[in-house]
């Protein structure tokens, strides 16, 4: 009996050594659910164990509180509440570098992956895009949006127009596993997050940190972004986090609210100051009243120091002002000396063509590039200045494959020049009626390609430009041809802008005889349908090979539209109308369809003419087979290209 008691005491002493308890308490029974209802029996601690990583401690009632004479033992830590979410997470506030668990996860503090990037967007523009940025980052890192937290957004030190963003990528559980963390690291560091560049611009990764990951980029000094006191970012962190009171949380929320309100106030104040300054400048500017019949002269300026703003302020009548929109130009300024050198002093040998507002010269710049230089004529009424300003204003903002590209301008005293890309294959007029006609290159397929491209260019001016642009002098000589016979519409010297919703523009009748619509010639009312009429005349030229005004066999001057209109309604008439130089190498059904479009375009009633957009769509359907055939044959310009000096008609026409 005595030996049994001694054996029992020895076992109790050994248990006290194993469990870190006083030997006289080791005999206590493990608490049951009834004695500790908040802790299930299957997770009750049975001895010392490491604390779970990165999770706050939420102690419940203990069955075995520590005794004062055992302070050096390992304290019992209840496992993470990941299994049983505690009620009421409002009071949890995690201290840096920990952050609260994402929405939908058990309350707790976890260690996030910290990312710092520079976004190519100003901070004030990013303010309303925070949620979109979270979605973009979540998609790029294969996380949920709730796992992405934007912690800070400040102007970048290197560029105030960029924003430095601090992002926390938060795990759903206690921590990221090594594979997931490495995958996120690689996608972030290698810029595989497909952020929307149209909204956020380009981005640069400055810093990525998480225990176990490789070192982050060196763009940001480590001491400014490291977590620990040493700034190395690799410190060991406690497994549990202190939970401050809700008072601290409320204080931080109040600070955030103050910052947001202050920022909004500053932004509104800045906007108000800008509006006030603009209003003050507008009121302080002296009004300039110009008679519609009298135009002012353009102040003399020289060379590269000339600016278009001084020219825009003059040479414009009151009737021009509503239709002339001011916008920043993207064209280059050339000096007169540069152009004189490029054209050999505007030599007659360099002349490409001559139009109503000046000659066009072939120029070779110092870098070897070839250009077309239109030198405007100086007139007493200074209409050339007005047309110069109109053409520059329009061409500087119109870009289309079927429009001639404006490269630059020159303003030198009273001299005005426009510099275009060089189109060295002549014009439609030169190939139909001029020096290039003997080449016999304009077969039916090429004529349809020209008709379709010219229609596309006019449709762009009428329907895709805001406000729409009326060419007012559309004709065969203003359709230039590239080497592959791609047409480009040129000569916007007479172009006018039409405000949206306006039915017509009352203006002085200008244009080329034979192309001018009858209502425009009689009333001076300029419509987009006036350009449609001119396009119909060009179609008749392509069909018949005749000029808009030609000399008949009786030596009388005949109008092409008057002659062709009765022939467009019958097969016999079309056979008489079609250009004999085509040698009947064409599809007659295709000819009939194009002729029907031409008939609608030259209708005497403008309301019966189609709009250019609808016309282009119909014509593209008719010419689809033709274009497919052109794409299947070798390039039509395998022959020796024409030299620019052989062109008799060009941009100035």
From TrEMBL:
It comes from the Eukaryota. Residues 1-20 form the signal peptide. Residues 38-66 have a biased composition (Pro residues). Residues 346-621 form the Protein kinase domain. GO terms for molecular function: ATP binding; protein kinase activity. It holds the Pfam family PK_Tyr_Ser-Thr. InterPro entries: ALE2_N, Kinase-like_dom_sf, Prot_kinase_dom, Protein_kinase_ATP_BS, Ser-Thr/Tyr_kinase_cat_dom, Ser/Thr_kinase_AS. ATP binds at residue 375. Residues 30-66 are annotated as: Disordered. Keywords: ATP-binding, Kinase, Membrane, Nucleotide-binding, Serine/threonine-protein kinase, Signal, Transferase, Transmembrane, Transmembrane helix. The chain crosses the membrane at residues 253-278. The keyword Calcium does not apply. This is Protein kinase domain-containing protein. It comes from Ananas comosus var. bracteatus.
